Amino acid sequence: MTASQPTFRTLISRVAPGEIFIRGGRIEDLIDTASFTDVVCLVIRGSRPSQTERLMVDAIFASAADHGFVGTPTAVTRYAASGSGSLPAAVAAGILGIGASTAVPHLIAELLRDLAGDGGPRSVPDDRIDDLVRGYRSRHQRLPGLGHPIHRPIDPRSEALRRVAQRNGCYDGYVALADQLATRFAVVTGRELTLNVDALIGAILLEFRWTPEQIFGLTILALTPSLVAHGIEEIADGRPMRIIPTEQVEYPVDNDSGQHP
To answer: pTM of the predicted model, to two decimals?
Structure first.
């Protein structure tokens, strides 16, 4: 008789009666000594962060504290909370609102990593970046990490993260490459776009060899406290079953038949 194979395999944790091990260490030791950022890095990446990495991830968490109704996930959370009255449903809906246009540090990380190639971020020539910009322009695509609907010409979160990166010796690699990208975009297109907070987050985490998938996971985690707060507030103080006002909705009419399609 053939022995059955395990259903799942994991290196993250091991649980037995009276024992919990996280990445090989006892959970009691984490409880005694670890910060939240320590635990996040350990669980997601398999090791505790260095002191510098901890400071930078802490700064990233602070940068994602809240952004009001500018981000789609917040609006989705509030709307779902008003209809469901359920905090888990509201937060889950907000997380599902994260995508290609909102919270994209992982996309700028992929771009910067590919741009740097084997030579690393400190040796990327301007003409390579110029070709990248022209390629995006020819395909009518937006470059992730550039531009913001409100924060012009600077994103205050980007400025603050850059200062923290410089103070902690984390600027001269991928963060500097992100700045170089913004500069070359302006040269090639004649337009100066804000280097937004997503670009700084992606660039900083690349310095510590986070993968784009890990960066995306951290982004979701960083945004979640804000979504929880908005869900709680909407359920407690908001309007049940919010409805978009009629004057904000357009119902096109078919010009030939006079009927709505």
So the answer is: 0.91
